[in-house]
Amino acid sequence: MLRISTDITNKAIAEKLCKLIQRETHIEIQSSKVRRRQIGLDGIAFAVFDSQSRRLKSIRMAEIRLSRLEQGQTKIKNVPIAVTPEGFWCCPSPVVFQKTLKNQNPLNKPKPASPPPKIPVEKKPTLVTDRKPPALTRSRSAAVSDDDRKGNADTSGFSAPEVVHRVSRPKVENMPRKIAIEFGEPGTSNIKVVLLGKQGFSVKLSVHKNVLMDNSTFFANKLSDQEGSSMEIGDCEDVEIYVETVGLMYCKEMKQWLMKQNVSRVLRILKVAEFLGFMSCMQSCLEYLEAVPWVGDEEEEKVVTSILRLQREGIGVSPVLKRVSADVSKPHKDTLSHIIELVLKSNEERGRREMKLVVLRLLRENQSVPSHANSADICNETIYSSCRSCLGSLLLLFQKATETEFIDRSVDRKEPVLKQITLEADNLSWLLEILADRQAADEFAVMWSKHQELAALHAKLPIVSRYHVSCITARLFVGIGKGELLPAKDTRKLLLHTWLEPLINDYSWLKHGCGSFDRKVVEEGIGRTILTLPLEDQQSILLTWLGSFLKVGDSCPNLQRAFEVWWRRTFVRPYVETQGSNPITPQLEP
């Protein structure tokens, strides 16, 4: 039976309470009759307002009476703690807990047109039952002792001590608990559990000792040595969930009820169930969490964190955690290698493009995880293995495409090889992007600079078939110019001598045929790479560039800024080494 012990001082407030119960529990109330509507179990009691007698009456759903209980026995089938498809205790939805606490002052405040607070006894609504159990007339505060409750019994249904208690009640601001909600029926229970929450909110549960002890190690330990008929649990952070968890002790179909809850609420129930030592509830919650989808990273993190906090032995958390952690039967290196291989060998343009972006983004996220630092070397090794494979394939394709027999073929017969060249060049560009993002592309620059044979064959292929290879060279220069990779001086010099001329030859096609090509960024990268070399090498490379630029103009990279820096270093402010051990000092020419 649900009783809300706030000020029910007139008919209007009682009717509001009745409507609240009707709305939240789907109970249709007509006079003193209650009819069930989509609620499963019998034996559920309510305090409802009787419009004829103007009293609150305790009416059982379907007007079914409980049979007399033998001493020490409990008929769980007909307990007043309602276990229904809609929820437990047949009480208002969880929102009512918040509304009751929020609206405690309006309930206690009389309306302007109402009589003064001291209401005559004959006008006070009184709780009456069909069976007239002595404990149904209840004081408004959960702080009243059980002895007071027993003394309030009256066969007529009126509660005279209630008036005395009302007159002598303390001020609202001095009351330790301002709101009290009671569940269950005192007439059929043998123990009361009072949950003390925050902000003066308390809940009283009329329950059965053997049910609590059979399902909860917490209650078993507390009640085994206790002779009284009541106990308190203080500092309850989540009173609402405590009520539901205790209600679950009467539930035989726990899985079906949990299916109607969300992940967040089940995690709250799991936390309370662990505190109470309610093992069957914990197991049902874990089975729910193992099967239900987790939506978003935040919810997944909440689930994993909550599961890892479980300290009790015998609780199977591994099925839940297997969703986020696998047995290391297969090394991560093999898995990553397989993923990269699938992307590299794909011929479907859209799938390749999207998955390249996804893998690049995910690898970038892994770098921000401290625990991933140890596997960084393994990842880089896997990527370099793919790089060497692609470079070998590209060299074989270049050799085949420059054979005399191949040149004499028709365009249709050439197309598969030329398409494969484009594919391998695109693969290398993607792998280089991954390495540069991981600041591990120095070795790639070494490999690329040493491929003089590939650079020599490059000039023999038609520009339409080879210009994608120059994108790799351009990306290396951009990376060096931005400091994303720091190869040795000899590597930088060899890279420029081997691949700058092929890049210049393909430059016009790169500008117009490559959508991701950024001319200014590439030109700045080439210039900065040149300026990292000794002054003599700068001069040699820039003078060669100047000859090409004066011939083809806009079809050649514009390295004017690098040329100006070299000029100033050479003619305007040359640095010379003084005699002895003095540092290098600038000497301006007149």
UniProtKB/TrEMBL annotation:
Pathway(s): Protein modification; protein ubiquitination
Keywords of the record: Ubl conjugation pathway
Membrane-crossing segments per the record: none
Comp. bias regions, Basic and acidic residues: 120-133
The keyword Amino-acid biosynthesis is assigned to this record: no
Pfam families the record matches: BTB, BTB-POZ_ANK-like
At3g05675-like ankyrin-like domain span: 334-573
Entry keyword annotation includes Cell wall biogenesis/degradation: no
Domain BTB intervals: 199-290
Location of region: Disordered: 103-160
InterPro entries the UniProt entry points to: At3g05675-like, At3g05675-like_ankyrin, BTB/POZ_dom
Function comment: May act as a substrate-specific adapter of an E3 ubiquitin-protein ligase complex (CUL3-RBX1-BTB) which mediates the ubiquitination and subsequent proteasomal degradation of target proteins.
Designated name of the protein: BTB/POZ domain-containing protein
